[in-house]
Structure formats: C-alpha cells, structure tokens
Amino acid sequence: MLKAERHKFIMTKLLEEQKVVTTDLALALDLSEDTIRRDLNELDDKKLLEKVYGGAIQFIEKSVDVFNINISAEEEKKKIVKKALSLLHDGQVIIMSGGSTNLVFAKLIPSDLKATIYTYSLPIAMQLSQHPNIDLIFIGGKMQKKAMVTIGMDVMQVLSKIKADICFLGASSISIKQGLTEIGYEVSIVKKAMIESSDRVVSMFSSNKLNTKMPHSVCDLSQLDTIVTELDPEDLSLEEYRKAGVFVL
Amino acid sequence: MLKAERHKFIMTKLLEEQKVVTTDLALALDLSEDTIRRDLNELDDKKLLEKVYGGAIQFIEKSVDVFNINISAEEEKKKIVKKALSLLHDGQVIIMSGGSTNLVFAKLIPSDLKATIYTYSLPIAMQLSQHPNIDLIFIGGKMQKKAMVTIGMDVMQVLSKIKADICFLGASSISIKQGLTEIGYEVSIVKKAMIESSDRVVSMFSSNKLNTKMPHSVCDLSQLDTIVTELDPEDLSLEEYRKAGVFVL
DNA sequence: TTTAAAATTGCGTTATTTTGCATTATTTTA
DNA sequence: TAAAATAATGCAAAATAACGCAATTTTAAA
C-alpha cells in the first residue's frame, strides 16, 4: 500500500468518524504505530487534520486572513444557487450585487459561460476574476469597507448608464408588505439603481430571510421577477409571495 | 510497444484501480523500473497523475482558492516596504497600484493612519478594507483578470480628476535607460496616468527587478522620486540610479 | 539511401525515502 | 506522584528514486 493511499484512507476515516486513533490505524493498516504517527504528523503539517494525544481530529481553521472569506452554511447556499444557474445564458449582460449567497453563485457559474458581469463587490470580483470567459467590470467608488462593496455617486452614475439583461440581487430581508429592505441606507440606494438598470431581477436567499425587515426600503415585491430559496417552490411559506406575482424558483 | 501506448495503459490501469505501482507496471510491461519511472514523471509533468513514492495516484485538481494569494519571498518584501512606511502621514491622499510588494505594504500600514487611498487592484482593496481609518476608493473599470486590476477609459477618467500627494507604484522592470517598463500595454497607460496625478512617485521592488526591461514604457527615471529595494541605499548596484537623481531609500 | 541528431532504454552508482526498533522524553490517568 | 500510555529521536536496513552514461532505436535532413 502506497503512503499516499494510506493518507487518503486516514482522511476518509477521519471524515467518517470525526477522529482517528493511532493504535486502531496501526492495527487496521498492519503497520507500526511509528509510521502512523509520522503520517499524522505530515497531515498535520499540511493542515489537513489536527494531531492530538492518541490520534487526530478534524482541522478547524482559525486564521483571520482578510482573503479567507468564511461562508456560513455553504452547502445550503449551493443548493439554492444551483437552481438559478438555468437563468444564465451566453451573451447576457449581468449585474451582481454582493453577499455570500451571490458569492457562492459566482463560484458555480459554468466555466464555459460567455457573458459580461458588472459588480460592485470585491469578493465577487475576486471570484469572477478566475473565470476564463467572463468580461468583468468593476463598478468603482467609495468603499463601504465592512460589506466590501462600493457606494455613492460614482456607483450610481455607472449604473445609470448601463442596461443589463438580469440582475442577481442579494437580500438582507424580505417581507410581503415591505418588499426588499436593507440595513444600510447607501446600499439600499445602490440596489434601487441596480434594479432600474436591469430587465429582470432575481434574488436568492435562505428562507430565514423571509418575513423580516430592515430600516431602508429597496423595492417592493412587484419589482422582483424571481426569488430563489432552498425551499420547494410549492412550500406554504412561499405561497403569499407567489400570490404577489413573484416567480418562485 | 510504443511509449504512447504505455502511457495509455498506465492511465487506464490508474483509472481502474485508483493507483499504480512502479514495480507492478515494470513486471506487467516487461520493462525496467527506470522506464516506468520516467513515464510516470512525464505524466506527472502533464498533470495527468500524481507521482508518489512507489508509484502514482490519480490527479486531484486542487481547488484554486482565489482568495488565497500567495506572496513569494514575503519576508524580503516586508523588509523593503517597512522602509517606506516613514513616507506615510495623516491626511495624505494616496494612489496605490497593484503587485505583491504593494500588497505587503498595504498589510503593514499602521492601523492609526488616517488617509485616503485610491487603488485599482482588487487584492489591495481587499486588504485595505480591513483598515479602520483609511478612506478607500476603488477605481472601477474593466478588469484585467490576470493581474486583478482595472484598466481602460473609466480608470483613466477617474485618475485624470484626482490629485494625490503620493503614489506607490509597483514595478515590473526598471532600468537606467528605459526607466519603468511594463509587460502589458494597458497597465502601462494606467500607470502613466497615476504618475500624472501624483505629486510624488515611489516605487518599491526587489533588486532582481533592477536593470531589466519590458515592452511598454511607463516613465523614465526622472519621473520617479523615490525607489525602495532591500539593498542598502549605498549599494553599488544602485549607484547609477542615485546619479540619475532618484532618491534611494 | 545515407548520415547525423535526437530520443529512448537499461545498467551501475549514488542519493533519498520509508519503515520498524530501541531508547528516551512527555503526557495522561488513577 | 507513580504507572501506563503515547510521542519523539536516532539509527540501520530495505525500498525506491535520481543521475550519469553508453548502447540502441527512431527521426529528420541531406
């Protein structure tokens, strides 16, 4: 058995059982404990696991690297955004706002899609800069550093001049009465402009955003063409939205 | 048996069994282990498999984490940029171009500095978005995805309208005769504009950039106010630059 | 077709990696 | 605090790999 195989075996077992025990592995693989320890040390060095007394446990990342954007519930978000991939077509002009759901979406855009994407979000732009066939345009302006998006006059001006086929709009909060709402005034203004510049507006978010509201209005439901959540479109909690004329994907 | 056939055989076996062992292959194909090793090395070079001690395993594409920017020789670069920190003062308006040396610089900007920074580089902006007291303005435009910077008319227009106290300009190549030069035409144009918009121009780079040149001119030495390398300012290889009137830090 | 250059292959030699064991240190447990 | 379990270290044997070289085959050019 090759060492590389062993490492794979160890990692698989670790994933299945959340931990591995040195003596068990030695027995299972018919090797000395020394060898297992050396393996665990190597994997630890590579930050693939964390060696502890008696074995190893799963690695938990704890770096505070700016560039290391932590997406909570990434798997659920993947489920959501995959539904929206069908809305993408070659030749489209697309506007993307920020937010972690949109970031997951950006990751999953097929590498053969040829389109033009405007964005004002640094992480989204970073992600899309890896895409081989996207024409990427960053909407410059003053940075709202916390959200890592641009805001202000310059942004508005660029948006006023473009016409996109579709806009993927991140959502902080959505409710039947208030529609889309935002916590920050400036971002709400910019999102308004994004909607104005797009033929079609799609918003993707987890169902826990449903029926919540924030201080600043972005638009009401009638201005949204499509919403996407992890729920089945027929789900009861979405019924009111469907009745309001929003297409639920 | 042709080499190409052998390679196909190896790849097929690898696909079937998830691994191949050098000695087994040598036996099966009736060839020396040396030849098999050479085959495996070639296939490894082509990224068709991953050679390991004793054989080879399937190639797993390491998910290129966009957000994980690898800075080569980071320690050396830290040494360089620390010298330039003394050029920073509260209230300055600063332009920063891209490049890994500038990125290291951005990381080390003291957290109590109050200044306004314009940049056209995504990684630099990501880094500076963590800074509590910097007013950050991103210069938008079409993305040059490889360098993760914006280029084109929009960038030029923004630059034409601002006046900065100091510009930190990354350098691809520098020589006595040609001055600063760039590999890409568009970036060279933008850098020209950055220089125009700044009272003072500082360039930081490793000494291995000295006396090299690229196709597109940015400026000649007379337009640079200060250069910073890891070398002692009195170093002989910098003498010509000092004579040309550049301040060497 | 002939000839020179380039690529391929195996062998001997040397270098590197892997592994288990003995020994010594460290951590855990009772 | 002592005993037991686990780890680290140095070492040597075995396996594997790399290197230089020469013989052979293939390819390309004349």
UniProtKB/TrEMBL annotation, chains A, B:
The lineage of its organism: Bacteria, Pseudomonadati, Bacteroidota, Flavobacteriia, Flavobacteriales. One of its GO terms (molecular function) is DNA binding. Residues 3-58 form the HTH deoR-type domain. SMART domains: DeoRC, HTH_DEOR. InterPro entries: Carb_Metab_HTH_regulators, DeoR-like_C, DeoR_HTH, NagB/RpiA_transferase-like, Tscrpt_reg_HTH_DeoR_CS, WH_DNA-bd_sf. It comes from the Bacteria. Keywords: DNA-binding, Repressor, Transcription, Transcription regulation. It comes from Flavobacterium azizsancarii. This is DeoR/GlpR family DNA-binding transcription regulator.
